[in-house]
Amino acid sequence: MTSxxxxxxxxxxxxxxxxxxxxxxxxxxxxxxxISPDLEAFVDTLAAFVLxxxxxxxxxxxxxxxRAALRPGGDETADDTIVRAAAALELLQACALxxxxxxxxxxxxxxxxxxxxxxxxxxxxxxxxxxxxxxGNAAAIxxxxxxxxxxxxxxxxxGLDPEALQRALPMxxxxxxxxxxxxxxxxxxxxxxxxxxxxxxxxARYKAAKYTVERPLHLGAAIGxxxxxxxxxxxxxxxxxxxxxxxxxxxxxxxxDPQLTGKPAGDDLREGKRTVLVAYATEHANDEQLxxxxxxxxxxxxxADGVEALREIITSTGADVAVxxxxxxxxxxxxxxxxxxxxxxxxxxxxxxxxxxxTQRIR
Amino acid sequence: MTSxxxxxxxxxxxxxxxxxxxxxxxxxxxxxxxISPDLEAFVDTLAAFVLxxxxxxxxxxxxxxxRAALRPGGDETADDTIVRAAAALELLQACALxxxxxxxxxxxxxxxxxxxxxxxxxxxxxxxxxxxxxxGNAAAIxxxxxxxxxxxxxxxxxGLDPEALQRALPMxxxxxxxxxxxxxxxxxxxxxxxxxxxxxxxxARYKAAKYTVERPLHLGAAIGxxxxxxxxxxxxxxxxxxxxxxxxxxxxxxxxDPQLTGKPAGDDLREGKRTVLVAYATEHANDEQLxxxxxxxxxxxxxADGVEALREIITSTGADVAVxxxxxxxxxxxxxxxxxxxxxxxxxxxxxxxxxxxTQRIR
Lengths: 363, 363
Fold this sequence. Notes:
The structure is a homodimer.
Chain A: H1 4-33, H2 40-51, H3 57-69, H4 79-103, E1 108-109, E2 112-113, H5 115-125, H6 132-156, H7 162-192, H8 197-223, H9 228-255, H10 258-261, H11 267-271, H12 276-284, H13 287-296, H14 304-316, H15 319-339, H16 345-359
Antiparallel strand pairs in A: 1-2
Helix pairs in contact in A: 1-2, 1-4, 2-6, 3-4, 3-8, 3-16, 4-6, 4-7, 5-6, 7-8, 8-9, 8-12, 9-15, 12-15, 15-16
């Protein structure tokens, strides 16, 4: 589906986002490190986290949302500026991931220890007093907070002209509120137990679809001066695509290759995530299967055999096939909306490629 | 020291800040609550936290920093706008307090349960699965994140003209970074144990002095168009005053009346806070006293007798008297700086009254 020319462009954009993040962090670091040598670990952990790769999907949606809004010859925002504004999304994402790992008590991220785990380990290794886990959580909460503040400072300091910034800020605020709401609903589903496909889809919409795809597109389009029709079209493309993205994530969280996902096999099951996949299995399980799902999903002690048993139940209820079908339906709806929305042609080409990248990925 | 006319003005400002917060929250609430009934507890807990009083000191410093910058007849920002911008500081403070209670594992705030404790209790009371403490922490982290985002949305949506907002944002960003750094240094001191007056003063400077007094003043002055001389003068007043404020807090955290502070007696000692007070006592303790300080400060099981024993050690090292002296010196330096800085006369009168309020308070 994706031509090599598109992939080249995607890689080039990713490199430029990395470069913008690196420049911004290098400029922000000294004023913090100079306060106290104790702050070096604080700021350097965040810097390493942000600069350690990632797919940079949100900046890509933001950038192409911006390009979608441009009329021929109408580019008024310097390219560096829009890349910087788009890159700020990665700092917001750093906050979301770092706090998420604390919420989920998840010890692994991208194949290495999560931030709270790193600080808990440093506590154990050092000659320190108090509780190591509490120290790890405290450091991670504050590093996430710093990421949230940096995200904001990078966006407002990106060089956008005041009018473009004024158009961007309502999208930025809505996005941030929606992701916090989605995360909270996710946590509530975990403690509620059981499963509801309807509720799980709502979590996916707020936590992922709006946050990962729709709002980044809106942010870029608002900066580019896009009108209401474009924003509506980008929603019609972005929301089903974002839901498909999250549904793919749900499948990878249970069936993914740990080498590629950077998370232990079955981590979502151990954390008790009430994904659409798990909710579908719960709704379609027989009594015996339901008893296993109820007792083992969210069991922190779940071992490889336990993960395998849950996988078999999920498969035998047809949940994996059902989720693949939901992904296909949503990807199709997204692509149809893309074709029927008026926008700059090069943006349409890239957004088509991004739809494939987001839904057919293996990590 | 404070005339009744000044107190009236202080109360009036506080009421207007409360009103601005209430209006803002009522306007922001529906879009969240409409997503899911599950979000009502999420948003209402934050609303109740923010609207449940507080001294509104930060908005007061911001407002009077703004007034200090005004030239006679030069008020271009509508009064409602600056009150809204100043009130945003209370949402930031809500984030700081809610996250702080998670960091410190503090179960009490303003005489009632802290936010994470409320949600942990709701988990126990409901028929819910998983770990109640983890659920409480997760909810509190996300509610604090929402407060941080709301703070930002309230400031940028306050109605400030774009130029005033551009002048305000660097102060806003610096303040938020500084408070996260101060909080982190505070956590590091707690796990390092022991005590250093020098390091404890640095924590007080970043966590409290800059965040509570200097930066709110700067934020207001920047909005009012104040020049570098005014900002410097406000720093010379604000930093010692803010340190004095924190030192008073340290004394109240150990010797304060729980009925007035809303925190259990000796809570700072139980949490292991390495305040200037504790650091001074540690530096001046004999071997026997040092052994008690080392083993009992930060002991979550500390009872009333344990608190009393630590109080006696603190008093016998002269730490309380030394801290009172530091407060007096700083209050004096702040007032001297206030007199020698050119500013609007009515602002000087109010800032003089605020200095008394912040350093001689009993809660």
